[in-house]
Amino acid sequence: MQSKKMTIYRILIVGVLILLQVGWLVSSVLTLSSASTIVNIILNIISIIALFVVINSRQNPSYKLAWVVPILLFPVFGGLLFLLFGTKSPTKKRRGRLNDSWAKLKPHIEQKEEVLEKLKAENASVYGQALYLKRFADAPMWQNTQTTYFKSGEENFPYIIEELKKAEKFIFMEYFIIAEGRMWDTILEILKEKAAAGVDVRLLYDDVGCLRLLPFQYYETIRGFGIKCEAFNPFVPFVSTVMNNRDHRKILVIDGETGFTGGINLADEYINEKERFGYWKDTGIMLKGDAVWNLTVMFLQLWNALRPTDTDFDCFRPRARYETDGYVQPYGDSPLDFENVGENVYLNIINSAKDYVYIFTPYLISDSEMISALCLAAKRGVDVRIVTPHIPDKKFAFMLTQSYYEQLMDGGVKIFEFEPGFIHAKCFVSDDIVATVGTINLDYRSLYLHFECGVYLYRTSSVMDVKQDAIDTIARSIPVTRDMLKPVLQKVVLQAFLKLFAPLF
Length: 505
Prior knowledge:
Elements: H1 2-31, H2 34-56, H3 61-73, H4 78-85, H5 92-105, H6 113-122, H7 124-137, E1 145-150, H8 153-166, E2 170-175, H9 182-196, E3 200-206, H10 218-223, E4 228-232, H11 240-244, E5 251-254, E6 258-262, E7 279-281, E8 284-289, H12 292-306, E9 327-333, H13 341-352, E10 356-360, H14 368-379, E11 383-389, H15 395-403, H16 405-410, E12 414-418, E13 421-423, E14 427-430, E15 434-438, H17 444-449, E16 452-458, H18 461-475, E17 477-479, H19 489-500
Parallel strand pairs: 2-3, 3-4, 7-13, 10-11, 11-12
Antiparallel strand pairs: 1-8, 2-5, 5-6, 6-8, 9-16, 10-14, 12-17, 14-15, 15-16
Helix pairs in contact: 2-3, 2-4, 3-4, 5-12, 6-7, 7-13, 8-9, 13-14, 15-19
């Protein structure tokens, strides 16, 4: 519901700006006043500046084109549209705080060279991927870690409850969406008990993500229970950074030893306690061991940027020894840089695939690089299958997703729609050896604007669990056929219009 309302909110703003442009042009023609001419010149200058900013940015060409067209189409208010929705970077103040926080944490991020050397001897391609994530996402590759994959929210939820009850030192929680209901109420009661017992309980939620789902300034309520709580990006209408740079991550860390992530937020539809769009298909993963440290560091960076708290970070490290289950590398993606880490992980998996790539994504609103990689993989004989929802949560986003079907199918990609309902999972699995489970959608916002995270897996037992889940999910899905793609003029026109504003979705 929240994402739908925010999409409608953005579309309403766009509609208002377009109407203002038309009204302003009509008024300017009728009045021809010197004042209107001056204002018109100023607004056009803003649009020209925005155009230069877009063209000279280091953004992906598809993302730049998606903004150049609206700015040229609406020269008077196009610049304002870009200022509201197109700027990628956080404010200078927020960026400074995040950088300061990271500077304190970075010395505590180290890669065990013996792990990389062992990996290099096993698989040079995967070694290259691991090296990339270490260098450009400061995310070490780990062993001494166990992984457990969950093919649904209701399968994941009992493990979350069980692990929360075991907490003795600290609980760190970072979620995009929290909504009152059975899932959150159950978790909150445990958090209250743990906080009262002296456990360091911290909660970080995205204010935009929880808009209209939680009471105003909900963090004050949570603090009243003895729980440390912060809202990321408090919602302020018409401020671009607030709406663009969201904390879309889902991270739960308990005592530094156990970590959870994936697509599952803390709301009842994620565990199918409440039905919204048919059956809600989601996925998650639990880590135990050294790799949890990467998730802990992600949380601590954002937390200390909002609320400087910690000077001793080593006390949050995992200490126990676990039986090694392959190689595990949690990683984050941030709008602070020009490195599209989430997208590049996906591209590397696709480009390295030899036999198959199976993909879950709720949205398929992708740039040319992603579309080309998927088609090229299929053309060289890789079995590429993508599962999208059959019952969408956002109709406009779904229409955009469907607009890419024909091009992908022409390239040999097989597309399936999850018939029982909505698939919110974000997973890739390939060749029985690699997989990633996380929060990163195949859309512009996830790939370029949000704080995101995922877990890259190599030869863990969970890789085969992801594969089996993909096979089972595809069996419950509708294969998209040519007959389903027969063009309807109104739909084609609307899809073309929506593509102009794809970054808004």
